[in-house]
Amino acid sequence: MKLEGKVAIVTGGARGIGLCICEALAQEGARLAVVDILQETAEEAAEGFRARGIESQAFAADVANVEDVGRMVSEVVEAFSGVDILVNNAGITRDNLLIRMKESEWDLVLAVNLKGTFNCIKAVARPMMKARSGKIVNIASVVGVMGNAGQANYSASKAGVIGLTKTAAKELAARNITVNAVAPGYIQTDMTEKLSAEARDAFLTAIPLRRPGTPDDVARVVCFLAGPDSAYVTGQTINIDGGLVM
Ligand code: NDP
Q1: Which of 189, 187, 184 lies closest to 238, judged by CA?
Q2: Contact between residue 137 and residue 240 where contact means Cβ atoms under 8 Å apart
Q3: What atom of ligand 1 comes closest to residue 139's alpha carbon?
Q4: What's the CATH superfamily of 7-188+215-237?
Q5: Where are the domains of the chain?
Q6: 154 flagged as catalytic
Q7: Which residue's alpha carbon is at the smallest distance from atom 9 of ligand 1?
Q8: Which three-class secondary structure state does DSSP give residue 31?
Q9: How far is the CA of 170 from the centre of ligand 1 (A)?
Q10: Is 91 close to ligand 1, i.e. is its CB under 6 Å away?
Q11: DSSP state of 29
Q12: At residue 138, does pLDDT exceed 80?
């Protein structure tokens, strides 16, 4: 097992892609700090892992709230005596065409997806720098690279995550902390259930591998970036999209 004993914080880890990432990390031996905006949602997921003998604890935090994040990281470090891996997975959409997009829709998506990622990186940076090791994996999106009609807020937040990944990688490399991102394409989850049938068909015809991705497709690459096999990889964004963007 490649992550034996490693402590992993996964934001938005209670369901969807985040839950699958928790599962994949645990299969490699990681101990889980499952973070969700709601305590009971996080607790339900953590309890499910504990019932299977996997060391796991729930932590509530709104990643957009800097105080919440600071408290959550301190609690994790105290509970597990450190933190080795951070997966910034929590993310939301509030889709609308640019000319109809409300300021509140713009602000909320940027606050959770981009500022939330910044908040969490900043909070784990100190303990990881002290330990002179760490692995940070940010969940971006292919729409941060290619844009997508109706997602001005979301695509801008995910493009921001890619830029933030590169800067954090440069700043933290000297302390042996790698920072990478994955950019999933069309992955079957609750989030993509909200897409119209036309939008779904348009994605599928554009995907060379001719199928939507699964949360497990994402989790496997995250595991690689969180583990020892990616020791010499930093500042990169790996597309997980069936070839949609080349
Ligand atoms: P889901 O909506 O299924 O899950 C998102 C998780 O994040 C939920 O557990 C949710 O909690 C949590 N969350 C939401 N807001 C906050 C917050 N402010 N603080 C803490 N936790 C929060 O999303 P997916 O699993 O589909 O997506 C996961 C990530 O992958 C996101 O970053 C998304 O942008 C990205 N992605 C997804 C793609 C897809 O096709 N699905 C494609 C490309 C990228 P709760 O349930 O309590 O609201």
Answers
A1: 184
A2: no
A3: 32
A4: NAD(P)-binding Rossmann-like Domain (3.40.50.720)
A5: 7-188+215-237
A6: yes
A7: 12
A8: strand
A9: 27
A10: yes
A11: T
A12: yes
Tokens matching residue 84: 């080795």
Q: Which tens digit of pLDDT belongs to each residue from 71-90? A: 999 999 999 999 999 999 99
Structure tokens that stand for 227 in this block: 């583990």
Q: How confident is the model at residue 9 (pLDDT cuts 50, 70, 90)?
A: very high
CA 5–ligand 1 middle distance (angstroms): 26
Query: Model confidence over 176-195: pLDDT tens digits?
Result: 999 999 999 999 988 788 78
Q: How far is CA 79 from CA 29, 58, 108, 143, 229, in A?
A: 17, 11, 30, 37, 27
- The pTM of the full predicted model, rounded to 2 decimals, is 0.98
**Cβ(199) – ligand 1 distance below 6 Å:** no
What is the C-alpha R_g of the chain?
Answer: 17
- Is 90 exceeded by the pLDDT of residue 205? yes
Q: Which of 35, 37, 57, 60 minimizes the C-alpha distance to 46?
A: 57
The response to whether residue 41 sits with its C-beta less than 6 Å from ligand 1 reads yes
Q: Which residue's entry shows tokens 């928790």?
A: 22
Question: Nearest residue CA, atom 38 of ligand 1?
Answer: 187
Give, for ligand 1, the residue of 17, 23, 65 to mutate: max count of ligand atoms closer than 8 Å to Cβ.
Answer: 17
Structure tokens at 69: 């994040």
Burial class (CB within 10 angstroms; exposed 0-12, middle 13-18, buried 19+) of 220: middle
